[in-house]
Amino acid sequence: MSQPPVSRETWHGDxxxxxxxxxxxxxxxxxxxxxxxxxxPWPRPKSCRxxxxxxxxxxxxxxxxxxxxxxxxxxxxxxxxxxxxxxxxNASTALGMERDNQTRSIYHCLVEDEEIRxxxxxxxxxxxxxxxxxxxxxxxxxxxxxxxxxxxxxLKRAFAAYDTSDLDYILIDCPPSLGLLTVNAMVACDEVxxxxxxxxxxxxxxxxLLRNVxxxxxxxxxxxxxxxxxxxxxxxxxxxxxxxxxxxxxxxGELVLDTLVPRSVRVSEAPSYAQSVMxxxxxxxxxxxxxxxxxxxxxxxxxxxxG
Length: 307
Ligand SMILES: Nc1ncnc2c1ncn2[C@@H]1O[C@H](COP(=O)(O)OP(=O)(O)O)[C@@H](O)[C@H]1O
Ligand SMILES: [Mg+2]
Known about the structure:
Elements (H helix, E strand, L loop, with lengths): L23 H12 L13 E5 L8 H14 L4 E5 L5 H5 L11 H7 L3 H4 L1 E2 L6 E4 L5 H9 L7 H7 L8 E5 L6 H9 L2 E7 L8 H14 L5 E10 L4 H14 L3 E7 L2 H5 L7 H4 L4 H19 L4
Parallel strand pairs: 1-5, 1-6, 2-4, 2-5, 6-7, 7-8
Antiparallel strand pairs: 3-4
């Protein structure tokens, strides 16, 4: 596949982060790419793909998926922005965002019309990756948004105010609810990615999520579709995990990525070092799985006519 050379221009227009910085994490990131051998650069979408990572259940792997898919895409030349829409701010923590009470966050963008580009920060040691962090104020946003004009479309407006032509992906980490924050994500995106944990009750509540996507699609965002389902925390030793995976595949067919993300201690350790597993332990099974999943997402775009 012939691709234009990967531009190293940053989203902020400077080139300070050009090349591979000589730090332990950057070297690890580089090592992860080396593990896969040399390959063609991944295709860049024609226009920025905006993907919400959603499931109203907590603990299914939304944040882990957002952070690691974003890191893997960025490590393969894609320019990626992570929007942390969960008041708990786990994605911001995992991506090493510095926050204090002065930090401008996605809350200020939604409620005070702050420019998203101004509050996004570059992710340490991963060139081409930025994060618009969440702060605890976001916990009040569900209520504050209620009285605002176009309350469901605040995030969409924030994206529209910017030329995103120098970004390839925006990944939105949704909170574990179907409230106004998640609705804002679904109105602002084109694609929904649903991580499903390979556990008992995995499919419970999924109907409600699908109905919500349909509601948003019919009333607020006709361009919305569920494009990707990722099976997470898969433990191949248990029959249950296999049964859940089979059931999800028979239900959702080709929406389900071939790659399964295994349960891996390294994946769960990484956030406490303010890192993605892609940099924390690039050769671990979890990192390799997220790299494969990200590759599928990047290459599938064409088949799905995205961008
Ligand atoms: N593949 C995995 N292997 C092991 N632990 C995982 C894996 N994926 C996620 N976890 C852990 O499971 C917990 C929930 O994951 P998280 O991504 O925070 O879910 P959500 O954002 O949906 O609430 C976290 O402690 C995370 O570190
Ligand atoms: Mg989360």
